[in-house]
Amino acid sequence: MKTMISAVALTLTATSVFAAGHAPAPAVEAANQSVENGVVSADTVVAAENGWMVVHRTDAEMKPGPVVGYAPLRMGDNVDVAAILTEDIAPGEMLMLMVHSEEGGMVTGGFEYTLGAKEDGPIRVDGELVMTVITAE
């Protein structure tokens, strides 16, 4: 009996380690696009957990600025993710599409992030933000 319990414990531990090591690697793929219709889209967003694709204003310094849109993400591959923009974006402006978490807020399923907050904050892999930058056409 003791051997069986040990075997089950080892199996569960190995399964957990395997699952943790094989979570989808977060990523964002998007191209320059017209946002004349008030929407910005990512071709693919991979999320290791449920969260958000957040659209920040940015510039040549590549620092995330104010949030101008967001869309929910499911864990795994998300295709053709569209975020409604909350501000007008002019052609030539740069937008940073970034993966954010659903953790730390008071409301599950409600986007709570403000610039610099921890609620629904950005995901980092090896210290780097998971994002891509596009230019509005």
Principal-axis shape: globular
Poorly predicted spans: 3-19
Strand content: 35-45%
Oligomeric state of the chains in view: single chain
* Strands in their spatial order, largest beta sheet: 1-2-5-4-3-6-9
Number of helices: 1
Number of strands: 9
The SSE order reads HEEEEEEEEE
Largest sheet: 7 strands, antiparallel
Structural class: mainly beta
> What separation lies between the terminal Cα atoms?
67 Å
User: What radius of gyration results from the CA coordinates?
Assistant: 18 Å
The level of helicity is 10-25%
Can you lay out the helices and strands and say which pair or pack?
Elements: H1 2-21, E1 27-29, E2 39-47, E3 51-58, E4 67-73, E5 76-85, E6 94-101, E7 124-125, E8 128-129, E9 131-135
Antiparallel strand pairs: 1-2, 2-5, 3-4, 3-6, 4-5, 6-9, 7-8
